[in-house]
Design a protein that fits this description.
The chain is α+β, with helices and mostly antiparallel strands and 1384 residues long. The protein is 39% helix and 12% strand. It has 49 helices and 36 strands. Strand 23 and strand 24 form a beta hairpin. Helix 37 runs antiparallel to helix 38. The radius of gyration is 36 Å and the shape is globular. The two termini are 55 Å apart.
Length: 1384
């Protein structure tokens, strides 16, 4: 690849043979003569060379300088491009030297570069390969067809004849005439793309056309900075309009833009009349960044054009009109000047400063300035200035082009412009593009030499490598705020004028244009946030994060996961929302408002800016970013009317869930108080607090508010503000009755409603949380069922047991909780028995597990059986002491195998494991003794077991002894190893895991708790959760931990999720895209996962370090991460990783604690996650929750057989989602397809065992393939046993099926009250004929041979499906209501 780049020909010459030096020389000559180039020069023998070597970029017009390479916004580096990196070739200092010559300083630096700059050799190789594969270089073999097409376009543009100047009315008629008579592809009349407001028919302006004076290809393509993308990259062609078409005062009142629009229309018709171009390109008129003042011509190759098919990802050729820099007086376009007079907006306002038409008059200074209007015009005049500056910088710094390419790739991976949300595509309205980043890099380079860059650490040297330049620029972007600290090329710039009229300021080399004109606050905040994360990744001490920096584009491909809350805002009558164009009151305020709206270039952008600035101001402390993205068709050429916006909010998790939002003191800050009251209306109350301060406050809930409700405070705020100030209603409603009572009262005068029908707001944040709820027959007070109440009861139990130390043989060191309900990770908060007995469902009570740790002792017996008896005696003693101290409590001692029994002898446990010997049975974890304490005060049941280190030592010793002795019974050794592993899992691994997850959910990320619950609900509804049949609970929690505290790209997000919605969607992304076989997935619980981004309580220590130039990622050391990677590589080498879900941690580098999920289940999870993400995107796109139930529904037609259980004996049915969770807006889904167990019925049953159904009604239910929601009988407990603790016959039945038929059947079940058990036959066992032998561990049936068998051959047998089904039915006697075989 590099060799091709070194040998590439000078593509700008017709002969095609000049050397690289000649190519560079042609660049050097071009800048000085382009400005004066005339028509006859285009016809000279060097016309091709001049077309490609001129200077400026569509990027360089980024809002006047605001025309950016589309590749900056669309790029995706998954494209394989065979071109070179496109950097300017080095031609100096290269000569042949002898082998004995001394190495030069440059060669020594190159040799040491990897060691000094990169964390590993691999990163440098990846970076070089990335540039080689994505760069698109002019004159290469791959772009040969493109170069020919560009010359053809140039010829077509230059051959158009002149059009005499005419009035506006005559120009419109002329355009109708020539467009109607030309051979256009579409049968329609072309409208001149005039901006808003359009010119009146009698306006004193002449519109005409003359052939362009200069036609040049500009931008990153000829400079060698272009980067290919998955969709397309842009090649820009500047068409310079003759100065004779313009007058001295055409910068006023849109006169220049009207002439520009007519010029574009004539060019468009001329291109359409070319048969060759019409057959090769789809030609359209578009607007740059949606600005109606800047129409351009976009040409996209049609499919099947062979000469352009070789380009990676495709190409878009854009025709950009421009003017010479001396065509109009640029000094008049200062940002504090007004160039749109009130008389042009509304003739009724003609009395305002008409004298301002005179450039020497000061009347224009009394009008509101039009900085964006001025910038749009400046951009067309400064192409050559910017292009020349970038070219000179590239000449000065050999690695400049490569560094600029890296910046473009990095930015393209994080830009959401043009990405899809369902059926909608986000508009490309961002003003921060690759061109702006390239100019930042140029400023850091050139400013270092001129002294403009104040901070020494940001002063770049021309001798730096591309990686050094890229890294330093990223660190600068991460720390620099262009709003607080304006930046300019040079010192002779009136920064006060720029700072007072723009939010962010970055003045170009001409000193006239703000390159960040039009950039919104949230756009720059996203840039800083992304740069900060990248700077940490580059400097990460433990791992290579190249993929995360340059390749991972999950956020751009699925924009619904980019933000914590995504709102779909649909409005109608945008023009009515704006100030009236005519008939206004003529006041200065009305004129200023109308000018400010027109200054944005279109109505949609004006509305976008208003909503974004309003919400950002109102939610200043609650939200770190409030981004507003309009959808295409945007305001470019779309008619003003209805429009869809997507509002993305990145929450400040510290503040967004607070119950009380504190405001200012009315006496100390009256203006701030008035503003606060205007935002919140009657929701704002004056309150006195404990510190004696009196402040305004908004109370969103009372103490003890459930976690689910607290997570929706921020969506409630957004819905309240938009309804109060814009009359936009949420559907379904997000606000609570307290909000609805006051939201419409006493609206402020500044509140404005959209015209037409009422706007509609939709968000999934509130709907997905519904699936964390459970169904209960009487619905006890949810405020009493909380995690905090259960944890408080456990803390009290721990104190009570420690108070009994004087009556126990050993001192109690601690109680270690291991239950998910005590770490905010169970599906629903633990349910106290007291509430169940007061009318709730008491058919199943989940015990809360904990482990008692005693002080060490040498008196524990060395015999395992005796040790278990001593532990049982300890538990009995603890139970006696606790019952004596708390008479109202209930205490039971039993074991996990036999249970402690109920009044009628019904056991609460059943065998779940098969072991090889009686000795192994004695050591089985399931037979260990437990103590159940039913806490009288709280109603919770705690299940306690004893941690004895001596037991673990005995098991490990016996395993070693058997191995050393060469035990002839491998089964016994294996059973002992399993027993030791179970002991470790119970007494070591689970407490450690509990502490990590508890710390994450309680201290660092409160939203992680709801995310875990949502993911568990999703897995269980798809029958994929459970130690016996699917993903262990602990592994599901680690998946969520990967999103909140994962290493590498496992949590590649703009910010750590701060909502359950974002955490859940990003967890699904991880499950759908992670390459388990190729990449290590690890959780770093020790990382600095709490990013306090400078909130009101002060900046975190990490941010202070970053401000001083110390970019350090806290957490796992390089040595420990290396151990994780070593274990993964070793497992790969031994072929132990086969696409199975595997997550490692610092404590578990081999990922053996919870095992791995089999590949067949991993593939199933991946497919379901992908489909679920598609449903989420469709919901957000369409503004309806109709597809949401499908996310939590699994198709039963995919299974070979389905067992339906009698719902009357399903003890945990109350844990199913409530009926309200499945109620949708009813716009796009067939609700009958979704069943109780999250099942979507499908497939034809081969055989249904109807004789199992006791009634005709049951048979009718079995024949249908759909189910209604769970029907809960009035008698909640089917066994008439009050307080059944841990008794779940459905799960026990599933475990029996796994134990007996695990080799031949995959069994699936919803552990949270599912009434369906589904199964798949193992194709390796079922359906194959095998020779008969005595060791077959399954029911087999003889198979008749088609040909006579020889006397020596054994008979063939086959898996007996019918007998196995009968055995399953007998095993589930009393539980099974229906058994349907869908595929035999």
């Amino acid at each position: 690849m590099a060799a091709k780049s070194a040998r590439k020909k000078d593509w700008t010459s017709k002969q095609g043979t000049p050397t690289a030096k000649k190519n560079v020389a042609s660049h050097k000559q071009q800048p000085n003569r382009l400005a004066d180039q005339s028509d006859h020069e285009m016809e000279s023998s060097s016309e091709d060379e001049e077309m490609y070597n001129s200077h400026d970029d569509e990027d360089d017009n980024e809002e006047a300088g605001d025309v950016s390479d589309g590749d900056d916004e669309e790029m995706d580096t998954d494209i394989n491009n065979n071109n070179s990196n496109g950097a300017l070739e080095k031609t100096s200092g290269q000569h042949k030297r002898g082998l004995d010559a001394k190495a030069t300083n440059a060669e020594i630096m190159a040799l040491n570069e990897t060691t000094l700059l990169f964390k590993s050799n691999l990163f440098k190789l990846q970076e070089d390969e990335l540039l080689a594969e994505t760069s698109v270089s002019a004159g290469s073999k791959a772009t040969r067809g493109l170069d020919a097409a560009l010359r053809q376009i140039r010829d077509a543009l230059g051959s158009q004849g002149p059009v005499d100047e005419m009035s506006v009315r005559a120009a419109i008629k002329y355009m109708h005439r020539i467009s109607g008579s030309s051979k256009l592809a579409r049968e329609e009349t072309l409208q001149i793309p005039f901006p808003n407001p359009p010119p009146s028919d009698d306006m004193l302006i002449k519109l005409g056309f003359q052939p362009p004076t200069v036609i040049n290809v500009v931008g990153s393509y000829p400079l060698g900075m272009a980067v290919a993308s998955r969709t397309s990259f842009n090649v820009d062609m500047v068409v310079q309009m003759p100065s004779a078409l313009f007058q001295d005062r055409d910068h006023l009142n849109y006169r220049y833009f009207y002439k520009r629009a007519f010029y574009v229309a004539v060019l468009f018709v001329g291109l359409k009349q070319s048969a060759a171009l019409r057959d090769a390109f789809d030609i359209n008129i578009e607007c740059m960044h949606g600005d109606q003042r800047l129409p351009i011509i976009a040409m996209r190759p049609l499919k099947g054009v062979k000469s352009l098919d070789s380009l990676p990802g495709g190409v878009v050729v854009r025709i950009l009109p421009s003017i010479a820099h001396d065509t109009l007086p640029l000094k008049r376009l200062a940002p504090d000047r007004n160039h749109v007079r009130p008389s042009h907006i509304d003739p009724a306002a003609a009395g305002a400063a008409e004298s301002g038409d005179d450039p020497s008059s000061s009347g224009s200074n009394s009008l509101p300035p039009t900085p964006l209007y001025n910038s749009a015009l400046l951009g067309d005049a400064l192409f050559l200035t910017h292009m020349k500056y970038l070219f000179e910088t590239a000449e000065m710094c050999p690695e400049f082009a490569r560094a600029a390419s890296l910046l473009r790739i990095w930015h393209g991976q994080r830009s959401v412009g043009g990405t899809q949300i369902g059926s909608h595509s986000l508009a490309r309205t961002q003003r921060v593009t690759g061109f702006v980043l390239t100019m930042v890099l140029a400023w850091l380079l050139r400013g270092a030499m001129s002294g403009e860059v104040a901070e020494r650490r940001f002063r770049l040297s021309p001798t730096m490598s591309a990686h050094q330049l890229f890294k330093s620029t990223i660190e600068f972007l991460a720390l620099h705020d262009f709003e607080d600290i304006p930046v300019a090329f040079g010192s002779a710039v009136d920064m006060a004028a720029f700072a007072s009229n723009f939010g962010a300021v970055f003045v170009d080399p001409s000193g006239a244009l703000n390159l960040l004109a039009g950039a919104q606050e949230w756009e720059l905040a996203e840039l800083r946030m992304a740069a900060r994360q990248t700077a940490l990744d580059i400097n990460h001490h433990a791992e290579n994060r190249f993929d995360r920096i340059f390749l991972d584009s999950r956020l751009t491909r699925l924009a619904v996961s980019r933000y914590d809350h995504v709102f779909r805002l649909e409005v109608d009558g945008i023009s009515r929302f704006l100030a009236p164009s005519t008939g206004g009151d003529g006041s200065a305020a009305s004129v200023a408002r109308r000018l400010a709206e027109l200054d944005h270039g279109n109505a949609v952008t004006a509305v976008q800016s208003r909503i974004a600035s309003f919400l950002s101001s109102a939610l200043e402390r609650h939200a770190r970013i409030v981004a507003v993205h309009p959808c295409v068709p945007d305001a470019g050429l779309a008619k003003e009317g209805s429009c869809v916006f997507f509002v993305g909010v990145i929450a400040n998790e510290d503040v967004s869930n607070r119950l009380v939002d504190l405001g200012p003191n009315p006496d100390a800050e009256p203006q701030m108080a008035a503003r606060f009251r205007a935002y919140w209306g009657e929701r704002a109350e004056l309150r006195r607090f404990r510190d004696a301060s009196i402040r305004l406050a908004v109370v969103w809930g009372a103490n003890g508010m459930p976690t689910e409700s607290r997570s929706l405070i921020l969506p409630r705020m957004v819905a309240y503000l938009l309804r109060r100030h814009f009359s936009i209603r949420a559907t379904p409603e997000v606000m609570v009755p307290e909000d609805l009572l006051v939201v419409d009262k006493a609206r402020p005068k500044a509140a404005q409603a959209f015209g037409g029908r009422v706007g509609r707001l939709f968000t999934l944040s509130a709907r997905v949380v519904d699936f964390t709820q459970s169904m209960d027959i009487c619905g006890p007070a949810t405020d009493e069922i909380t995690f905090e109440r259960a944890i408080g009861a456990f803390d009290q139990l721990q104190r009570d047991i420690k108070d009994m130390e004087d009556r126990l043989p050993l001192r109690v060191l601690a109680l270690h909780p291991v239950s998910p309900g005590l770490r905010y990770a169970s599906l629903t908060p633990p349910k106290p028995l007291a509430l169940s007995r007061n009318g709730g469902d008491d058919s199943y009570i989940e015990p809360l597990h904990a482990i008692i740790e005693f002080a060490g002792s040498t008196k524990w017996p060395d015999d395992i059986a005796a040790l278990h008896k001593v532990k049982a005696a300890f538990l009995l003693r603890i139970g006696e002491c606790y019952a004596a101290a708390h008479p109202d409590s209930h205490v039971d001692v039993g074991n996990r195998f036999f249970g402690y029994g109920a009044a009628d002898g019904l056991t609460t446990g059943i065998s779940a494991t098969r072991v090889a010997s009686r000795d192994a049975d004695d050591m089985d974890y399931e037979r260990d003794n437990v103590l159940d304490i039913r806490h009288a005060a709280s109603g919770y049941t705690f299940r306690l077991s004893i941690l004895c280190d001596h037991e673990g030592e005995l098991l490990a010793r016996k395993v070693r002894e058997l191995r050393m002795a060469g035990n002839p019974s491998p089964a016994t050794t294996l059973a002992l190893e399993h027993a030791h592993r179970r002991w470790l899992r119970t007494n070591r691994w689970r407490p450690t895991h509990h502490r990590h997850v508890m710390d994450m959910c309680q201290r660092h990320h409160p939203s992680a708790s709801l995310t875990i619950r949502l993911l568990k609900r999703w897995l269980s509804r798809h029958m994929l959760l459970g130690q016996a049949v699917g993903v262990p609970e602990e592994l599901a929690e680690l998946v969520v931990a990967c999103v909140f505290a994962g290493t590498s790209s496992a949590n590649n997000a703009l910010a750590t999720p701060a909502s359950a919605y974002a955490g859940f969607v990003q967890s699904l992304q991880l499950l759908s895209q992670w390459r388990w076989k190729e990449d290590l997935c690890a959780v770093d619980f020790g990382a600095n996962i709490y990013d306090n981004d400078g909130d009101e309580e002060g900046e975190s220590s990490s941010l202070k370090n970053q401000a001083m130039g110390v970019w350090r990622s806290e957490g796992m050391s390089a040595e420990k991460f290396g151990l994780l990677q070593k274990e993964f590589d070793e497992a790969q080498r031994k072929n132990r990783i086969t696409n199975a879900m595997r997550i490692a941690t610092e404590d578990d580098p081999a990922a053996q604690w919870w095992g791995t999920v089999p590949p067949v289940l991993t593939r199933r999870i991946r497919d379901l996650a992908t489909a679920s993400l598609e449903c989420v995107a469709r919901c957000v796109s369409a503004g309806t929750d109709s597809w949401l139930p499908q996310v939590f529904a699994t198709p039963l037609g995919d299974y070979d057989f389905v067992i339906r259980l009698d719902q009357d004996v399903v003890c945990r049915k109350y844990e199913q989602p409530p009926k309200s969770a499945f109620e949708t807006m009813g716009e796009a889904t067939n609700s009958s397809a979704t069943g109780t167990d999250g099942s979507v019925a499908g497939g034809n049953s081969a055989e249904v065992f109807k004789n199992l159904l006791p009634t005709a009604q049951g048979r009718s239910q079995a024949q249908t393939q759909t189910q209604t929601l769970v029907h809960v009988k009035q008698r909640a407990n089917p066994f008439n046993q009050p307080g059944m603790v841990g008794f779940d016959p459905a799960s026990m039945f599933v475990r029996d099926l796994v134990d007996v038929y695990g080799d031949s059947v995959f069994v699936f079940h919803d552990v949270y009250g599912g009434s369906v058990v589904a199964g798949l036959w193992n194709p390796a066992v079922v359906g194959k004929d095998v020779p008969f032998s005595a060791g077959l561990h399954a029911s087999m049936a003889p198979v008749k041979r088609e040909t006579p068998a020889s006397s020596s051959s054994r008979p063939l047998v086959r898996y007996n499906v019918q007998d196995v089904v009968s055995e399953m039915i007998r095993l589930g006697d009393g539980l099974v209501a229906d058994f349907a075989i869908q595929r035999a």
